[in-house]
Amino acid sequence: MKKIIITGGAGYIGSHCVLSLVKNGYIPIILDNFSNSHPSIIKKMESISKKKIIFYKLDIKNKKKLELIFKQHKCQAVIHCAGYKSVNESNRIPIAYLENNIHSTLSLLECMKKNKVYKLIFSSSAAVYNQNQKLPWKETDQIGKTTNPYGTSKYIIERILMDIAKSDPKWIFKIARYFNPIGNHPSGLIGDNSKELPNNLLPYIVKVAQKKLPYLKVYGNNYNTRDGTCIRDFIHVMDLAEGHIAMLKNNQSKKGVEIYNFGTGKGSTVLEVIKAFEKETGIYIPFRYTKRREGDVPISLSSSNKAFKELFWKPKLKLNQAIIDIKATLNL
Question: Which of 3.90.76.10, 3.30.360.10, 3.50.50.60, 3.40.50.720 is the CATH number of 3-184+234-264+301-316?
């Protein structure tokens, strides 16, 4: 069985990727410092997968410890999910975001090179795209005019990978540009359980549904959209996890950098998501309009045709299924 090191493997995206790896016959090796995740997630993944999960509590900027793990576990590839991820927080502490996300990636790449591991899947974001261009966004569209430090960190890392690939033909980089992951594993045992206050829409709605927050803040109601609120391309996290498996299984011989969008190509407004949640759960979600949030774009939509054609990947789960899965997790 092939070993795959997965950084941030106890986080929201990472934990779902771990389950898909196990299901597809891989052995995941989790590296996570639990700065924004919970160690208890390991036991839950073991319960779902019926397998022992190998993990190390580690900040991947610690090169000495990272080196020991690479020497102990001869892996086929690395999935790099670790990193700070809040757009809102990145506007408040930009230096921390740039330092952590870029420094950790460079540390990882240096260790991979030393140990002759040249295959990396990098968790990037739709936040790298220039917002003032035709929708839906394709992998060949312009990037770089980012609107927040989180997006800037992802853009810089993408450029780093491109430069490394030019300098050394042994590297195989797959860049996965996520749009808006939602939902959780159908078992209901794991989900988006970040320690930080929710910044993404559905986790915020859940906190309101649980009465842990009094109401939902809707950031802006005067965007040029069908109801004045932002439109996002929501993709079920299990579909996204399967996208990582598709990247591992396909295109293995192609060297250099390949970029794939992962979204549905269909957008929902904030108000539409609220209504869908209320319909599936029967829980009323009070909300208040507030000023626009710095760094938010009005509309974000994916063209995932490249992933369809090259990876034979397609999203299967819709918004309502994501809400049903969240409902099961929270016993709402």
Answer: 3.40.50.720
Query: Which of 26, 150, 223, 260 is the catalytic position?
Result: 150
Q: Model's pTM, two decimal places? A: 0.95
Distances in Å between the Cα of 107 and the Cα atoms of 63, 65, 102, 110, 293 are: 6, 11, 9, 5, 32
- 26 as an active site residue: the answer is no
Nearest Cα to 19, choosing from 182, 154, 172, 188?
188
Return the DSSP state at 212: S
Please report, as a single letter, which amino acid is at residue 172. I
* pLDDT bucket at 197, cuts 50 / 70 / 90: low
Q: Is 253 a residue whose pLDDT tops 70?
A: no
Spatial distance between the Cα atoms of 29 and 78, rounded to a whole number of angstroms: 9
| First CA to last CA distance, the chain | 39
What does the pLDDT look like over 25-34, one tens digit per residue? 999 999 999 9
